[in-house]
Amino acid sequence: MEINKNIYENTEVIKDNRSDSDSEDLYVVMKGELETQKTRNKKTERSGSRCSRLTAVCLGLLCVLLLTVILVLQTRYNSLTAERDQLKKEREGLQRRLSEMGEACRQGWRYFNSSMYYISTEKKNWNESRQDCRERGADLVIINSRQEQEFIRQTLGSIYAWIGLTDVETEGTWKWVDGTGLTTGYWDTKEPNSFAGDEDCVITGQLGSDSVLKWADCPCNDRFIWICEKILK
Ligand SMILES: [Ca+2]
Ligand SMILES: [Ca+2]
Known about the structure:
rod-shaped, 8 strands, eight-stranded mixed beta sheet
């Protein structure tokens, strides 16, 4: 605006100091110059405005990009934190389990397939034997598989020992100490036979030739050693 004002002022001065004809020519030239300057200024303004809009758009895009990166990093951080906490929990569980196993082994327990087994040295009847297991945080053994039966046979040898199976509630209906019914039994060939008339509790370790079929029903007040089982969690 200041430039335009000066041009107008200069034009007027020139007009005053020249002859009318020269003045008019000069006036036209100066006016043309002024219009050219105005046009140039408008172009410069439009160009500046476009540049500002472009800068604003770029900044906006940059902000969106940064926000996206922050969100992705936050999600990844949360996921890693949860994973770390889970691993920490698992490690603590393993350490606790190892510690329990170490202590149990020192007390004479043996480990097999996620369970610990205790074989007594003294003899008691079936109920007293079960009570002893419970006081040790366990129960009389429940034999869930052929592998478990083989492990017990190898550990025991041919000694008789109480297991956690009885039909004391209903004659002929064998149940484990956790209340589940018997599905697969490893009875000696002539058992169960209620030979003594009232044989409601089960031992393993019969002397038959088969290496796995070792069970027999016996009177619950007979006295044998017993096997406790503690399932590790
Ligand atoms: Ca078992
Ligand atoms: Ca029998």
